[in-house]
Amino acid sequence: MSLLWHSKDFESLAKKAMMNSLANRDRIDILILSNAPGEVMTWVRPVVKALRKVLPSPSVRISVVLSPCPHASGQEAAILQSFPEVDRVQSEEGFWSFLLLRKTLESWDWSRQGVVLFLGGEQFFAIMIGKRLGYGIVTYAEWQARWLPWIDRCGLAQANLLQQIPQRFQSKVSVVGDLISEAQVLEPQQNIRETLALSDSQELIAILPGSKAAKLMMGVPLGLAIADYFQQHRPQVQCIFPLAPTLSLQDLEHYTDPDQNSAFTAVKGSKATLVQPSEGLPCFITEQGSRILLWQESPPYSLLSQCQLAITTVGANTAELTALAVPMLVLLPTQILEIMRAWDGIPGLLANAPVLSTFFARAFNTWMLRQGLGFRAWPNIWAKREIVPELVGHLYAKEVGEVAISLLQDPDRLNLMREELRHLRGQGAALRMAELVQFTIRERSGSI
What we know:
The protein is about 40% helix and about 15% strand. The protein has 16 helices and 15 strands. The strands form two sheets. An eight-stranded mixed beta sheet has the order 10-11-12-9-8-13-14-15, sandwiched between helices. The longest helix has 25 residues, at about 1-25. It starts with a helix and ends with a helix.
């Protein structure tokens, strides 16, 4: 009897193993490589949504592996795990073991068929992993398409990148458009003005200081000082800080204290106290009595879409505001050159390397400013002309506040800015990237 039970038990286990093997054989794995918070929110997020639209969910498993990045906050894995479209996430701590040994932190299994999709980091990593897994390789090229002999497909952000592609590789590339411009525009599900108890005469201004420490050091105290300037010169303005998903209230509070923030004096910032009432939104109260609301819902599209103006640092924020057609004033304060380290390529590596990083960052940024930075806000880069004003240099609350108030006093200029931003925003780049993945699967396996 005992042997019979064990025999049946073994038969049941064998049957389950066989079913799992068949399921694993039929399933398609899509492995996305990414790295920093900007790529996670503005590249990965829209693409995984598009992938679920074009590929049948039961037969597709989406995994994301993060590679090390000097700009990472450490919260990227948690953000990715909150995306319902993503099945598995590995943080950057396990990256090198995976790259070199194909070993994940949780010993993931892999299907026979799949695609490695590059959406941030180093493109060569996608080649190594794709070849090791025997998967198709699809990359997204924002500035330069690399490793074309070894990939299946490449989506180009801009049509002018086609000029860089040798004729023999032209069949591998497609212009998909700028993923970074394709923030999901959500129809407001609530009247934000009612939620914030704003009167009809009040103007809602979003201040976005960024998500990385180098930007927050100057952006937060400067933003508080700008709120104080509004209180004195345009009291109908209500300022609000939408928090990046990688930040907590305590993280943000750290930058409001001159004893903890070495950049505070350089930008002539305002000190503030964090207040967390039992009802309503938390806020900062400055020493001058200004009240700056703190918005923690992410992404904050429903809020931003109802703002009269956004005051933002450079980066992915400007692309999301473009997609939402929100007029903006873009700031690049340069008071402390050595903390500006968000460059790409070799300059970025040297600016974040040990020992000589501070010296190199200061020297390189000084040289860049003398050469002229060109446009830094995404709508201006795309349009190749100034759609939204950019302020670069030693910026203080008075200079920024004066420009912001002049915009608020000119509704025709704000309306024109909205129309030009609507014309620029993305049109289906994420869907086209998903279709490249689908095409690669069909080309390799004939399925889906």
